[in-house]
Amino acid sequence: MKQYILTHGNLLTMRDRTIKYDTDILIRDGKIQKIGRNLTAFAAQEAAEPVNGLNGEADAWRCEADTLNGETKFLDISGRYVIPGLIDSHCHYDADYMGKMFLACGVTSVRNMRGYKRHAEYAAETLAGKRTGPYIYSSGPIYDGEDPSIPDNSNEIIRTEADVEQAIEYTIRNGFLWLKTYPSIEPELYRYLLKRARQQGLPVCGHMSKKLDDKVLADAGYYCCEHSSSLPSHKADIRYLAEAGMWFTPTQAVCETLPDYVWNGKMLPELEHFKDLPECERENWENRNRKIIESYRSQGVRPDIRVVIGRGRTFLEYSNRFMAGTDCAYPGII
Ligand SMILES: [Zn+2]
Fold this sequence. Notes:
Layout: E1 3-11, E2 20-28, E3 31-36, H1 39-45, H2 65-68, E4 72-76, E5 81-82, E6 86-91, H3 98-104, E7 107-112, H4 117-127, E8 135-144, E9 156-157, H5 161-173, E10 178-181, H6 187-199, E11 204-206, H7 214-219, E12 224-226, H8 235-243, E13 247-249, H9 252-263, H10 279-299, H11 305-318
Parallel strand pairs: 1-4, 1-5, 6-7, 7-8, 8-9, 8-10, 10-11, 11-12, 12-13
Antiparallel strand pairs: 1-2, 2-3
Helix pairs in contact: 5-6, 8-11, 9-10
Zinc ion binds at residues 90, 92, 113, 327.
């Protein structure tokens, strides 16, 4: 049995809006057993007064003497905060180093938005305790129609109903939890994909559609719109999606990177912690960013960030079904 006591932390339990200041936390076998003041003394006395547990009920748990001799580790966390693990609801866990980085940022679960076999392996290894990193909930690959505007397009292209069947089969076989779609799938194939996914109980999330009315997607149960920039431009249409029960992940930070890096001359090395990234990743980011800049400049894609943010806000006027995500490791998102 492993036992830890964190001492003098400030704790947010999220059960109410208060912060428990200067609190000790006793963790046994990976689970919080007790919170309260002066648990060190409590543990040392073996039979101290019961301390209120997380659920507010006093219980009669007592430390056993053998766990105190050498097996209890103490960590003074004075002045620090203890919070439940955060969930990054839109990310791309594409590099080994990211696992520890997520944890260092307090992120203990991720919703991975483009999954390959590697992610299925990462997820299994994490659950087995063989990988240090957050729990992974993942889509399969990104499915799209032909879209020449995407530089180095590595998405899976849906050209036939057989491709849809293959996508669903691959998703289920690898334990992925939803399908991710990009907006250029042909309307009839998109309808077919939505129908088949629904039959299989697979949610469909992504960048909506350029070729099909967004309301049609909503009616077909499209589960989640990723990015404020994927929302329709008219307020009534956004309201329709919100009221249809669709979820929404604004990924505010990545919406801001486009104008910043493509048009406003911001450079990646200006980013706080850029220097902390592995060198190969810094190069990777610079290369990808160069391609993104070329592509958007040549297409003249120049979104007004205030308009994009405004669409997200409109959605939130009609729904609280939104999730917070970063879109890391898109270049510029740490
Ligand atoms: Zn993304």
